[in-house]
Write a structure and sequence with these properties.
3 helices; binds 2-acetamido-2-deoxy-beta-D-glucopyranose; 16% helix; 22 strands; 352 residues; single chain; 11-stranded mixed beta sheet; Leucine-rich repeat, LRR (right-handed beta-alpha superhelix); alpha/beta
């Protein structure tokens, strides 16, 4: 009995010792590994690429004080990491207003961030050169935004190969040349903004074949010429902005009472078609047709477009009485003035 009890105590002691020892070991290894295993989530290759980008933008005062190599890149400004894999999925460099801080070209090291879903350069006035072809390696891109920069050159057709791309915003740059027709092959595009550049040529015929219903399309303030392709009548986008170009001829294919279009801006072009013949969608909230050569009468149905918030048909060749008894009068004289022979409130009475 006595010996047995003694053995038991001895046994217990070794177990306790063993537990204690392993705890100490555990604690020691935690201490040793902690800077890597616990606080640092950033993938070392991603960090290397980001530090290379910092080097390429070495005149940036902002960056010199950020992106400290001793800290975890997943907490750096402008960086987003994936919640489970910790790979860098977002490089979103933007300022609230145009900034001269970042000088140079789109760094080739962005291609060393293979899991990027969101790449954005916004309000970087001194970012110049062309759209770097290495971007084509970023197969996971969902959002590509290069806006308010000095990026020039043409829109590369490789952009049409991004299977996951939802937003392509290249507005307010210095891009020139034609719009690649292959962009209509982007299977998941929701927003295509190429506005405020120096793009030339026609709107591609293929733009009628965007996957239904079709993305919001902004091509405003470019140098686009020629006819709007008839095929564009096949898409069912909520927004189409073609304002401030040199587009001619018919635009009636963009209307139709079965469409869900809400915002249609065709102002400041050379368009010429009969407005009496178009079937206005009741979903419209924004209709700007000013500064064209549009003729005919204002359709009666416009009185029934209840949600209309913005409306302008000034500086056209419209005639006849403005539909009365509805809501159109609230837009005031300046929404109707400078036409051929429009009359009735809010303009002067029609001569009978
Ligand atoms: C910035 O980088 C360029 C080349 O990458 C180099 O020539 C220049 O000396 C660097 N400037 C500073 C301040 O480090
Ligand atoms: C870029 O600057 C413009 C003009 O100041 C501002 O309206 C816009 O919101 C800025 N863009 C971003 C992404 O902050
Ligand atoms: C269309 O683009 C022009 C800039 O060229 C802008 O002034 C206008 O507000 C835009 N319209 C819509 C509906 O977005
Ligand atoms: C319509 O456009 C004209 C010409 O650009 C402008 O003067 C007027 O203020 C605009 N009116 C409305 C209501 O938008």
């Amino acid at each position: 009995m006595h010996i047995n009890a003694l053995q038991q105590t001895y046994k217990n002691k070794t177990t306790i010792m063993m537990i204690f020892e392993s705890l100490v070991l555990c604690f020691l290894s935690l201490l040793l590994l902690s800077p890597f295993a616990i606080s640092e989530q950033c993938n070392p290759q991603d960090k290397k690429a980001l530090l290379q980008i910092k080097k390429e933008f070495n005149t940036s005062i902002t960056l010199q004080n950020l992106w400290d190599p001793k800290t975890d890149c997943c907490i750096w400004v402008w960086i987003q990491c994936h919640p489970t894999t910790n790979r860098v999925i977002g490089l979103v460099m933007k300022f609230d207003e145009p900034s001269n801080d970042i000088v140079g070209h789109i760094p080739s090291s962005v291609a060393q961030l293979p899991y990027l879903e969101h790449l954005e350069f916004n309000n970087l006035s001194k970012l110049s050169g062309t759209i770097n072809p290495v971007i084509s390696n970023l197969k996971h891109l969902k959002y590509l935004v290069i806006s308010f920069t000095s990026i020039s050159g043409t829109i590369p057709s490789f952009l049409s190969r991004f299977q996951n791309l939802e937003v392509l915003d290249l507005s307010f740059n210095k891009l020139s040349g034609i719009i690649p027709s292959s962009l209509s092959q982007l299977p998941n595009i929701r927003l295509l903004n190429l506005g405020n550049n120096k793009l030339t040529g026609q709107i591609p015929n293929s733009f009628g074949s965007f996957k239904k219903p079709g993305p919001e399309i902004y091509l405003s303030n470019n140098h686009l010429t020629g006819l709007i392709p008839a095929s564009l009548g096949q898409i069912d986008s909520e927004t189409i902005n073609l304002s401030e170009n040199k587009l001619e001829g018919d635009a009636s294919m963009l209307f139709g009472n079965k469409k869900r279009i809400m915002r249609l801006d065709l102002s400041r072009n050379l368009l010429s078609f009969d407005l009496s013949k178009v079937d206005l969608p009741k979903s419209l909230t924004f209709l700007h047709l000013d500064h064209n050569y549009i003729y005919g009468k204002i359709p009666q149905v416009l009185n029934k477009v209840n949600a209309l918030e913005r409306f302008n048909v000034s500086y056209n060749l419209l005639c006849g009485e403005i539909p009365q008894g509805g809501d159109l009068q609230r837009f005031g004289v300046f929404a109707f003035y400078h036409n051929k022979c429009l009359c009735g409130s809010p303009l002067p009475k029609c001569k009978s």
